[in-house]
Amino acid sequence: MTDGPQPLIEARGLRLSLPDNARRGLWGPAPRIEILKGIDLAILRGESLGIVGESGSGKTTLGRTLLRLYRPTGGHLAFDGVDVTALDESDLAPLRRRAQFIFQDPLSSLNPRQRIRTILLQPLRAAGLLPASPPERRAAVAGLLQRVGLSPDLAGRFPHQLSGGQRQRVGIARAIALEPDFIVADEIVSGLDVSSQAQVLALLRRLREEMGLSLAFISHDLSVVRVLCDRVVVMLNGEIVEEGPCERVFAAPRHPYTRQLIEAIPLPDIDAGWLSAPAAGHSEERRHAMKIEGCTALVTGTSRGLGRLYVETLIRRGARKVYATARDTEAIRDLAERHPGVVEIMAIDITNQASVDAAAKDADDVELLINNAGVNNLQSLFAPDGFEAARADMECNYFGTLRMIRAFAPVLAANGGGAIINMLSILARVSLPLRSGLAASKAASLSMTQTARAVLARQGTHVLAVMPGVMDTDMERDYPPPKLDPQIVADAALDAIESGEEEIYPGDMAGGIAAGLSQDAKAVERDLAQYQ
Amino acid sequence: MTAVLDIRGLHLAIGGRHRPTPILRGVDLTIGVGEVHGLVGESGAGKSMVGRALLGILPGAAVIEEGRIDFLGRDMIRLSERERRRLLGREISLIPQDPMTALNPVRRIGAQVADVLRLHLGLNDRAAWTRVVELLDEVHIREPERVARRYPHELSGGMRQRVLIATAFACEPKLIVADEPTTALDVTVQRQILRLIREMQANHGTAILFITHDLGVVAKICGTISVIHGGRILEHGSTEAIFKRPTHPYTSALFAATPRYDRPGDQLRPVPATLLAELAREARALDEGRRPGAAGR
To answer: Could you give the ipTM of this predicted complex?
Structure first.
């Protein structure tokens, strides 16, 4: 923002966290919840910016923070070139006069015991601009009412005696009483009928032109934003996922979430396909399903067992390209030979940062990352070398997977979101005495998977945790049968990617344990303790 | 076409015996078997009152002055309280607007859905629970056994609305009154809920009276519509015909006032005051005809 006109409002990396009283314990402060996660935006003079998003996206909080009704916990906020990020209330007086708020619900934001006249004079009184003589005050009130298209006769009424549209216009009149430069309007037409809505929108347009007003128009209704605003920002989970001129954003949305929002608006046209388009999905969780056919995947640990099967299964399902990786490429050479042009082999040691970084640079077209590599040091918790074994399990299974996710998240984002499969084990949920190191590393990885899913949802990346029981692979050769055919696991995982599942427990053993855990976790723990 | 619901000349007023305020002024409305009929109007038009009169859940001060509500051969207005209770939830049910207040916050989801099954179908606890889980699965709630054990506050708005849809369809009713069922939801969730209502409706062959102010929603889900204003049905017919060529100027005015993201250049026109005055005059004339001297307020 160095060239061009100086914006009236400018936010840089704006952050806000508030105490989350819902999670407050008996003692101590409530944990803080981050609502705005680094917002960058600028509003020019006379410009109206639409702020859209669904409930919980942080749009109302953003509006309030732009007016410094909240003190940001990070970043910078400037109003007309002055940094107001950390100003005290007493120093904010000039801002308070020049920036106003119009509330969503006029009935609850207008004092029910005051007449419209008193309500409209309140801002003047607060600013010390109240006209001295009663006739002057009457004229001021009448002027304000006229400017918002209301009859001066309404001055003596109470809010409940007005219609919803009239009340909202009183809210607007109060906001413009001090001739502000900037107004934040929060969902101000969402409670109105289309007819009153059209009037209020026309009024806002007119006032904007007359007063050269800058407007931040917060709304969940994209059609309203489109007709009123010049630019729009789309918010999701406290971040701006897309920003641009309305014309461009509506014609060619770039972020999948923006596209989803626009497509969800029911236009008043008959369109039989609108409802039937995709089959009714499961619940309203936003899912990031992905097609295996035609995708580019990278699998770690393909020298044996499940890793190998993943490569074969991906190819059978029509993947365009598969990076088969292992510490030692010698062991996987045959995969490339069997599938020339589809399989590309690559050396990755997931315990080595340089190796992983190099891979992320080379394989920059990956859309599906399958974190399959792992070790299993069968070692009792209290064995003499148990400590080192546990550390080795953790180093590979937890830190190795984390390293891969950190390196490849930007690659996936650049390729439209994509997906990650983390191969865990039912031991992420329960432990066995002889596999404590493995269980601990998988439990840690499950926790990490959950965090990654929450964080990466914003960039459209789907993260799947696969928690099978013991499989019939080389790694598990010491374990007594019955063991699960790894092909079932590979198929289940790829199915889950296509349907957008988040956690799966392939096989009877894992499925049974998972069901048992939801019934009586302690009983499962006691049962499993017997397997030495 | 056999009608599930046939409302004829329904007049309803609120307030004192001497100067009642007319709310519905001779409403006629017919819904055929398996039809989704939209009742479209702005706030205060009387659209919710039609649904409430049908369900017999009118506010205390409201009086049905005249007319007939025929539901599958039964006169809903003259039904005894006992008969009405037997019908509600079983043959007619409701999908309400606010999914939060419609559920009891201190009872588990499953128990609330099971209520209608035990009451109307006489299922025992075990059978009712099995059916609850099936119903929750049918409305695409994942892990229905787990959700059935949760409390309303643990579910999102969309999930709660799914639960209410499951409840509404639980006894295979012939008619469902859906009163602004998606107004409180985010747009992406609204689309999923509309899809679900459409899917359930098609699978069960249920007729729906879909009450809404949103022309967009009507266009997507209703086969026929009635446009209501000032307690009068101004226009009715197939959604397609009315969207193609509205015959009443008020319907056209509603379209002209609705913003569309695909036509940002259109001038949004509020419903003209002259048209509203004309409609009010017509309504007054109607009231005057029915109750000479009382109208004119």
So the answer is: 0.85
